[in-house]
Amino acid sequence: MVSCLFSPKACVLETPSGPIRRFCGPDEIVCIRITSSGKEKLKDLSWISKIQVNQPAVLRRAEQIQARRTIKKEWQAAWLLKAVTFIDLTTLSGDDTSSNIQRLCYKAKYPIREDLLKALNMHDKGITTAAVCVYPARVGDAVKALKAVGCNIPVASVATGFPAGQTHLKTRLEEIRLAVEDGATEIDVVINRTLVLTGQWEALYDEIRQFRKACGEAHLKTILATGELGSLTNVYKASMIAMMAGSDFIKTSTGKEIVNATFPVAIVMLRAIRDFFWKTGNKIGFKPAGGIRSAKDSLAWVSLIKEELGDEWLKPELFRIGASTLLSDIERQIYHHVTGRYAAYHDLPMS
Amino acid sequence: MAATTRVGIQEIFTTMEYGPVPESQACALAWLDTQDRLLGHYVNGKWLKPEQRSSVPCHDPVTGENLASCLQAQAEDVATAVEAAKAAFGNWSSLPGALRAQHLTRLAKMIQKHQRLLWTLESLVTGRAVREVRDRDVPLAQQLLQHHAGQAHTQEKALAGWEPVGVVGIILPPTFSFLEMMWRICPALAVGCTVVVLVPPASPTPLLLAQLAGELGCFPGLLNVLSGPASLGPVLASQPGVQKVAFCGAIEEGRALRRTLAGGGAELALALGMESLLLLTDTADVDSAVEGVVDAAWSDRSPGGLRLLVQESVWDETMRRLQARMKQLRSGWGLDGAVDMGARGAAAHDQAQSYVREAQSQGAQVFQAGDVPTDSPFFPPTLVSHLPPAAPCAQGEVPWPLVVASAFRTAKEALAVANGTPRGGSASVWSERLGQALELAYGLHVGTVWINAHGLSDPAVPTGGCKESGSSWHGGPDGFHEYLRPPTTPARLPCLCEELNYDTFGLAVPSSLPAGPETGPSPAPPYGLFVGGRFQAPGSRSSRPIRDPHGSLHGYVAEGGAKDIRGAVEAAHQAAPHWAGQSPAARAALLWALAAALERRTSALALRLERQGVELKAARAEVELSVGRLRASGAPQDQGHIMRAAGLRGPVLRLQEPVGVLAIVCPEEWPLLAFVSLLATALACGNTLVMVPSGAFPVPALEVCQDMVTLFPAGLVNVVTGDRDHLTRCLALHQDVQALWYFGSAQGSQFVEWASAGNLKSVWVNGGCPRAWDQEAEGAGPEFRLRATRTKALWLPMGD
């Protein structure tokens, strides 16, 4: 898919250890690649134009991959519990207040009814969702609520003029800084689609670099808003630029576009992640978001990651699912697995 | 038990492995129980379980468990089945198409009602992944029936005058999906034929299908299924009444069957070999192409192995991606819902194993993902590379599930390598440059080309091949023509001559001596063979006398031989690329120019014909008709068309390509008209020709050559006079002649059929029956055009 960007040897970075792996020092990556022939080449992204993605073939693969792996019985229960630990439990509504944020945070800490987990002997595994994800103005509420339930899962905040990204760069950067100040440790930024659609890849690279700097120690998840990029080739290119600019995660969509997380788009992004890993030795995370509502969907997504990237990506540091209603469906399936009955809505606590 | 599963969940939670997803085999076993685990044959709407027959066990290919015993048919069972089919043929073929369509639709519904049984049984017995059978094969079987029902509905109008050939025999290979049978029985039944299928022992699914068809009632003998050894193939083919035999299987078996059935009453349609080809250029989306390789070789939808050609500049990248992908493939029990590849039995396993061993010993590198114990029934996905092109197994067919990869430098070289194998089944081209992709697709000598996809199929799209892959077609309009006889053509009769000695037929040329005074007119036509655009002296440097009906010497023509045929075929090959590349209009212009030239010669030609005992008036009419034929074949014609396939965005092109170098042995009768009629269609379709004119009176053909000297590019048409048997022998045994039309004796026809087994060229013989060349239907019917072209299906998925 990509003709050799840079010699893989020169830019393999040490992966820092720690509970959450940070892909730090994005500067190195680009610079090591470039320095041999001077700083000017830093902006040479012309190889990007050579990338090819064949859409009909990707669609076919997407169709096949959903049917190729069935997961049943104990495996299904275990996989679903695993899926829970990938969830960025999200609320992104105009009517969010501290009370529903509080409820969300409680649900993030206790995603599955305790007795169900006990029945599966999984109650001592510390199963929580991976993070909660809110608007910047609600970060404070979320941090407080999580502290109150004694939970250290990260708070993620969307930023940079979410969901359209059509605000001034200055305010977008400021938004990131404020969210980090409020205690968000993960920032989901949206990219500027204008730059993609007009082919200004350097400018896009520079913007994401600035987002990266503004995040400081916080994780940077870059939302590509793939539903608005026009083609799968653009999706691949934008993924590559986002990773080169130092994103820790690339994320499909805001959940606010007409088309959100789809399998074809995911396949292209995952292939970009794999290419980036092969070239640089850095593992970048992937987060589909929007439209993932059923437990069955979540199994398909987990199996997609397993097939395309392998088992090492099956951990919250490298894979997230952005969702709000998915968790309750998973809980219902677990209920069914444990009890053999289908749950009524009132059987399970709301989030 | 509960406790152990609970621990299991913790473990799975950590490892995130896939678990088994077994599908119940209960309904398949219950069906086998209804037969007391003893399967016979399904003939004439009921089970046939004759006494005193040996039986063969049917095993689960993974566990080796004995599922049932299958009775082996003998010759008399075959005769019973053919009798049943013959009895049913009358009613079935005389039924209006609309009613046949209804019946086929009912069968489609029947399959729908019992689909679980069908897919469970098929997967259990063949070991193929149930997902492929359930999600692809069974729906496709229904689509096939639906599609052909639709065709049956309109066939009488669309193909007025075409008749069903009669009883059709279908012979299937040991490793096949029941779909291979569906592809062939659907068009046969739709046009009004009845069918006898000979399946290898231990394949219950076709029997189940026959039972489903039989339980519809009404036409019991429509579909008869026998299971028996391959040796029964010739027995089935030589049953009186069997008009057509469709064989699909290994190339060598097809060759042997071709030889055995030479001169028989049944026309033979061969679909041979399973290998496919994938051509990966440096502009391709490599990741998607890797998925193409998986579809082509490492899945249970692929029938055979794959030859993979990769452009050198993306070689390393491709190999890395392929190897990474191979690690994700899962082999396992066919009825497990999460496996990619099942087991295909010991024979397929051994074949793959021996190919791998041989390739290794010849210097190839072999990559297999994971460690598979040697006693495992599963053969792992295998990638063979760096096989020297001269190694013996580089020429052989690649078995499932192997991929043999080699590099190429330029697209031109890729085409040369791809066309360098004797097989011509299917291929895919991966390139994001439309111009390059089409250039390669048009240049490949295969039956099906997919661009940026692999292994798609649809009932409306013809599937077939060329070269040693055989020239029979299924699906689409071409599949239909296989089972129809063109208007006014009589049924084929056996022209088998037991005494015919293939080794000596046409071997010797009688020597010619001076034979008295020449009485031919003056000016005499130029002496020599018309080869490479000019008249040349024959290699033998001797001549043969031509006499008029009264026995007096008319003159001498050159005595052509093997070397002249060689030269003529070479000249034709040299002219072929240019002529095939001409537009139909440019070809038509030349044919019209020839027509005008003939018209100017009308009186001279008529006089020549008159000397052969034709009345002057009739002679003039023959010349005029010849001129007319030339003009008619130059008229604009159907040049293929565009089809739509279900589930595909974008068109499928049905290209009508020239066959290549076409050899024609003209009939003795109608020395001018037959020669011109044959030449006209063959040239209009873009072929280059080597022709043997009427032996008794080749003079008019040579006269026509005089005009071709100035009008036609050199080598386009080559005319060799001489001993017809000898020339026929040379042409029939020539490996680089793509098709041979023979109009002559029954013995000659039999020899041509026998000898065509060499390169499996497509042949058209008259079996010794004369044709009425002056009748439009027999002298210039649609059959000519069908035989003078080769179909290629070109899949063009679109999207951005």
TrEMBL record, chain A:
<dbReference type="InterPro" id="IPR011343">
    <property type="entry name" value="DeoC"/>
</dbReference>
<comment type="function">
    <text>Catalyzes a reversible aldol reaction between acetaldehyde and D-glyceraldehyde 3-phosphate to generate 2-deoxy-D-ribose 5-phosphate. Participates in stress granule (SG) assembly. May allow ATP production from extracellular deoxyinosine in conditions of energy deprivation.</text>
</comment>
<dbReference type="GO" id="GO:0004139">
    <property type="term" value="F:deoxyribose-phosphate aldolase activity"/>
</dbReference>
<dbReference type="GO" id="GO:0005634">
    <property type="term" value="C:nucleus"/>
</dbReference>
<dbReference type="GO" id="GO:0005737">
    <property type="term" value="C:cytoplasm"/>
</dbReference>
<dbReference type="GO" id="GO:0009264">
    <property type="term" value="P:deoxyribonucleotide catabolic process"/>
</dbReference>
<dbReference type="GO" id="GO:0016052">
    <property type="term" value="P:carbohydrate catabolic process"/>
</dbReference>
<protein>
    <recommendedName>
        <fullName>Deoxyribose-phosphate aldolase</fullName>
        <ecNumber>4.1.2.4</ecNumber>
    </recommendedName>
</protein>
<comment type="similarity">
    <text>Belongs to the DeoC/FbaB aldolase family. DeoC type 2 subfamily.</text>
</comment>
<comment type="subunit">
    <text>Interacts with YBX1.</text>
</comment>
<keyword id="KW-0539">Nucleus</keyword>
<dbReference type="InterPro" id="IPR013785">
    <property type="entry name" value="Aldolase_TIM"/>
</dbReference>
<keyword id="KW-0456">Lyase</keyword>
<dbReference type="Pfam" id="PF01791">
    <property type="entry name" value="DeoC"/>
</dbReference>
<comment type="pathway">
    <text>Carbohydrate degradation; 2-deoxy-D-ribose 1-phosphate degradation; D-glyceraldehyde 3-phosphate and acetaldehyde from 2-deoxy-alpha-D-ribose 1-phosphate: step 2/2.</text>
</comment>
<dbReference type="GO" id="GO:0046386">
    <property type="term" value="P:deoxyribose phosphate catabolic process"/>
</dbReference>
<keyword id="KW-0963">Cytoplasm</keyword>
<dbReference type="InterPro" id="IPR002915">
    <property type="entry name" value="DeoC/FbaB/LacD_aldolase"/>
</dbReference>
<keyword id="KW-0704">Schiff base</keyword>
From TrEMBL, chain B:
<dbReference type="GO" id="GO:0016620">
    <property type="term" value="F:oxidoreductase activity, acting on the aldehyde or oxo group of donors, NAD or NADP as acceptor"/>
</dbReference>
<comment type="similarity">
    <text>Belongs to the aldehyde dehydrogenase family.</text>
</comment>
<dbReference type="InterPro" id="IPR016161">
    <property type="entry name" value="Ald_DH/histidinol_DH"/>
</dbReference>
<dbReference type="InterPro" id="IPR016162">
    <property type="entry name" value="Ald_DH_N"/>
</dbReference>
<comment type="subunit">
    <text>Interacts with SPG21.</text>
</comment>
<protein>
    <recommendedName>
        <fullName>Aldehyde dehydrogenase family 16 member A1</fullName>
    </recommendedName>
</protein>
<dbReference type="InterPro" id="IPR011408">
    <property type="entry name" value="Aldehyde_DH"/>
</dbReference>
<dbReference type="InterPro" id="IPR015590">
    <property type="entry name" value="Aldehyde_DH_dom"/>
</dbReference>
<dbReference type="Pfam" id="PF00171">
    <property type="entry name" value="Aldedh"/>
</dbReference>
<dbReference type="InterPro" id="IPR016163">
    <property type="entry name" value="Ald_DH_C"/>
</dbReference>
